[in-house]
Amino acid sequence: MATTTARPSPTAPTTGPAATRRGRPARHKAEGTAGYVFLSPWLLGLLTITAVPMLMSLYLSFTNYDVLSDWESMEWVGLDNYRTMFTEDPSFWHAVQTTLTFALVATPLKLAAALGVAVLLNRSFTGAGLFRGLFYLPSLLGGSVALAIVWVSMFNRDGAVNSFLGWFGIEGKAWVNDPDYALGTLILLAVWQFGAPMVIFLAGLKQVPVELYEAAEVDGAGPVRKFLSITLPMLSPVIFFNLVLETINGFQGFTSAFVLSNGTGGPVDSTLMYTLHLYIKGWNEYQMGYASAMAWVFLLAIGLVTAVVFRTGRFWVHYSDGED
Amino acid sequence: MTASRFPRRRLLSGLVAGMLALPLALGGCGGEESKDDGKVELSFFWWGAEARAQLTEQALALYTAKHPEVTFKKTWQANQGYFDKLATLTAGGDAPDIFQIDDNYLAEYATRNVTLDLAEYQKSGKLDTTKFPEGLLTYGTVDGKLAGLPFGENTQGLVYNQTKLEAAKVALPTTGQTWEQHIAWAKDAAAKTGVPGTMDPSADYKAFWVWLRQTGKELYNGKELGFTQADVQAWFELWKGARDAKATPTADVIHEGNATDVSKQLVVTGKALTSWVWANQMPELQKNTKDQLAVIAYPGDASKQWPRASMYFSVFRGSEHKDTAADVLNFLANDPEVGKILGTDRGLPSNTDIRADVAASTDNPSMKQTIEVVAELAKNFGPAPTVPPAGHSTVRSELIKAAEEAQYGRATPAQAAEKFFTAAQAAIKK
User: Fold this and answer.
1) Tell me: the pLDDT tens digits for B214-232?
2) Which PROSITE patterns does the entry link to (chain B) (predicted)?
3) What are the angstrom distances between the C-alpha of B124 and each of B76, B118, B121, B139, B327?
4) Which residue of A53, A145, A174 is in closest CB contact with B16?
């Protein structure tokens, strides 16, 4: 945000008649300086809170840094942390698998739910605004701890979900305390928070020209055909955008798993997400060097996945530019 | 904040905090020039609830009343996240002068030279521990150094629901029953009351530890494991038998009970008739249920239990006011007036004279019973083990993981034992 507001405007009014050829470079320079001054809060933040610590963690990933000891006793261990990760830490691969399962199941379901609800809410009916607000509400709460706590209590053996199932004579499981279902409840929580992509889909749907639908109707297309042949292609850039964001989001899932398992990844490691494993290594076992290495592998992995998504985008994303 | 949505970012900001604080830490090493005005402010950090905060603040205020030049910068928070915060502060070279710590982490901090060796003050008499039980001091010693002042004693306690047992006319369990007898009792109690007789403690390191000691083993021998894989397997098989006999709850309920929060213990939530806890948790457990609770020792030979420090106070090695900090600890541990204020909030007072005072003056029946039971058991305690080595908290969580695999039927006791043994070995060797 700060970047857009702080960027020196090219159309800024010039000061007085001094705007001659000679004065130009000086003013240019002054504008540049002013720009950087305006940028400085953000730049400072970027450097101190993001860039320097990131580089620092890159450095730490090659050490045995353990948080508590003096810095002098920290040793350079080369690629040891990375080697351990791939060859000696069974929990690492388990965490990778858990995270992949979570992201690959939750993301498509969430997008499907978001698109489905967006299509329904796109019609104009009384109270449409109210419903849009209501459906968006869960994602306002975001990755909040409170929400995860409520979710866990709902899915307990004696929670609300099982009482509901009880009305139909179905005996529920101890969803959150059963290693077969714990991850499933987390996926469900993620899917339920579909509000953010939904709003973006809604905006996208409003952009689809009504004439296309009218023309299709004249040609005798039904609602399914209209959805597949008009809505989806016209919406593909928005779908793409949501897919990228939500994939990254999915991989970074942490809070709900942390709350459900009390920070352990249990029951029996069933909710041991990558980020949670990283946290346990760094903060419970004080292997911060190792945790830093994990963070970098994670960064590269997410980068790679995002690149792959971008690649595939060429084949299914349609940009309808220059029609007018 | 207990959880962050972006742990990596928090990790990074922790690091930058560490970096920014580094020059400060180095500067702090330069010398211990005492402030000329004689004013001393000690930072004091503990975990606990509101009630503990009030008591602690009263106790510290009393110290300030007697030593007006000494004031305290008090910080406290819930247990969850406490050790994250402590680690971050330590990484920044800015650990509190005095901080509360437990046996999970004492060795982690002591072996990394964060804590001050209090033995020197002990020798000079500035820190009086003559009234402390000896085993308790052993349990605060890491590599020959007194890394923390044991602040409160407890020992293993098996808490049972007296109300439910009496209502169903089941004989109450007694100290000295064997493990097999206990399981048989639990099976019978379950049949008569309709509530599972005993929590399955196979994931609980303290129960495993007592059981090991009764067979002549230890959880740790110095920095090695004190048991074999066969021992673990026998332990897991013992409890598989109990589960098969329906003496325990089902795996998902056991999982709930494996959480350490007092309020989630099954004896309190009514999902089992007994829970495996620390004896000093009795009063707190009693607050969470209307049923009458009572406490006895774990099954088997109770003399193999030991006085465990429920927590410690450690002094930061880089503190600028070490002498004052030691004096504060001496005051908190030995002053009779403070003893009355603090009561058994952190465990039974380490100073046995004060403990007797508290027992005589308390009107809380469960506190009274706890003190009596522990005093009775303490008469027969053999030698205490040393405090667990670094890596202990990982060993604990690996035991939970392996035991739960067996409980959920995802692994046989033999497979689970192998997994735990391998993981535990790796954890303390790192």
Assistant:
1) 999 999 998 899 999 999 9
2) PROKAR_LIPOPROTEIN
3) 31, 10, 5, 21, 12
4) A53
Check whether residue B145 and residue B276 sit in a common domain: no
CB neighbours (10 Å) of residue B357? 15
As a three-state string, the secondary structure of chain A is CHHHHHCCCCCCCCCHHHCCCCHHHHHHHHHHHHHHHHHHHHHHHHHHHHHHHHHHHHHHCCECCCCCCCHHHCCECCCHHHHHHHHCCHHHHHHHHHHHHHHHHHHHHHHHHHHHHHHHHHCCCCCHHHHHHHHHHHHHCCCCHHHHHHHHHHCCCCCHHHHHHHHCCCCCCCHHHCCCCHHHHHHHHHHHCCHHHHHHHHHHHHHCCHHHHHHHHHCCCCHHHHHHHHHHHHHHHHHHHHHHHHHHHHHCCCHHHHHHCCCCCCCCCCCCCHHHHHHHHHHHCCCHHHHHHHHHHHHHHHHHHHHHHHHHHHHHCCCCCCCC
- Indicate if A52 and A152 belong to the same structural domain: no
Which pTM does this prediction carry?
Answer: 0.84
Probe site for chain A from B1, B5, B108, B250 (most A CB atoms < 10 A): B5
If contacts are CB pairs under 8 Å, which of residues 223-282 in chain B contact chain A? 252-253, 255-256, 259
Considering only alpha carbons, which residue of chain B is nearest residue A287?
Answer: B430
Q: State ipTM.
A: 0.83
Residues B290-323 have pLDDT tens digits of: 999 999 999 999 999 998 999 999 999 999 999 9
Range of the domain at B314: 39-151+309-371
